[in-house]
Amino acid sequence: MKRPARVAGALPEGVFAAVMATGIVSRASHADAPAISTGLLWLATAALVVLAALAFARPRPRGSRAAWWDAVTFVAAAVAVAAGYGARGHRGLADILDGVALALWLLAIARPAPWTRAGRRRPADEASGRRLLVVVATQSAVIAAAALDRTGASSLLAGAAVAVWVVALALTVPIAGPVMRGLLLRAQRGRFLADDWILMGVLAISALAAAALLGMHGVPFGEGLRILGIVAWAGACVWIPFLARIDVACSLGRRPGLPGSLRWSMVFPFGMFAAASQALGRAAGHPLMQRVGLDAAWVALVAWALVAGGIGVGAGAGRVGQAAARIGRRQLPE
């Protein structure tokens, strides 16, 4: 996400990014590392509850953009956590989370996105991957709808879910265009934003949503869904080396440092790619794709651990520095 700007009494924008990353990595690692997956699921659940309570309780300035960003990131976070409980047979809790996510998604898309609102002229390099979170939230809503339709009795719901999936996939192109231009302009200056990894993640979640739709009874255009889902997955594969090259090149040009909270926007696409590869591989009958997803889950776990560790070490170093500064001030002569 973009570096969050704090306002009085409000949470930073994109605060649910860590929950998104933790929830989807838990889902991706469930097959090969069930104990780690369960621990991450509990951690994601606790963070989701606490942050949701803070977001609801703390006031925001009238017309604040942060509420919109919180809504779309909460949708993706809640659906990722719900999938973890659904996979473990806790359907009641999963249904509650999916239902809340769908309701909040409807409220979010009813409002204009922050970058479309009238205001100052924005620099060409300002557009970043966080804009694609509206598509991520929409595909998350499709996954939630597919999970809620276990009986397959509603062909209308299946058709509506497919229609929303197609619209979201189509919207990816016009939204991604300015983001790609911004990415290239920033790369020329040696800058890279971690949320540009969402360019890959949005295609991965579209593939995951396609796999969820293929599991619905009576879903229309099943073969078309399968083909488009594989195309979206292949597009995510293409983005990985391209984004990795720019990210590494820009990082080498700066003083090295510990990964911070902004890197959750990189962990989430990694986890989403792993989960999508596994799910679509099963749904489309491609064992190699599924194998890629199982291997990618370990990469996502390592990325999660590095970011979580970097944040922990950074926070500890900050506290030590503050304590040293206080001691130094006390020792100064009057």
What would a concise description of this structure say?
With 334 residues, the protein is mainly alpha-helical.
Description:
With 334 residues, the protein is mainly alpha-helical. The protein is 72% helix and 0% strand. The protein has helices spanning 17-28, 34-57, 66-87, 91-109, 133-148, 155-188, 198-214, 222-252, 264-284, 287-331. Mean pLDDT is 86; it is low at 1-10 and 330-334.
Helix content: over 70%
- Strand % is under 5%
- Give the rounded overall mean pLDDT: 86
Kindly, what is the distance between the CA atoms of the first and last residues, rounded to a whole number of angstroms? 45 Å
Structural class: mainly alpha
Main beta sheet:
none
Number of strands: 0
Individual helix count: 10
- List low-pLDDT spans: 1-10, 330-334
Note the overall shape.
globular
SSE arrangement, N to C: HHHHHHHHHH
The Cα radius of gyration reads 20 Å
For this entry, give a set of tags.
mainly alpha, 10 helices, disordered N terminus
Q: What's the helix and strand layout?
A:
Blueprint: H1 17-28, H2 34-57, H3 66-87, H4 91-109, H5 133-148, H6 155-188, H7 198-214, H8 222-252, H9 264-284, H10 287-331
Helix pairs in contact: 1-2, 1-3, 1-9, 1-10, 2-3, 3-4, 3-5, 4-5, 5-6, 5-7, 6-7, 7-8, 7-9, 8-9, 9-10
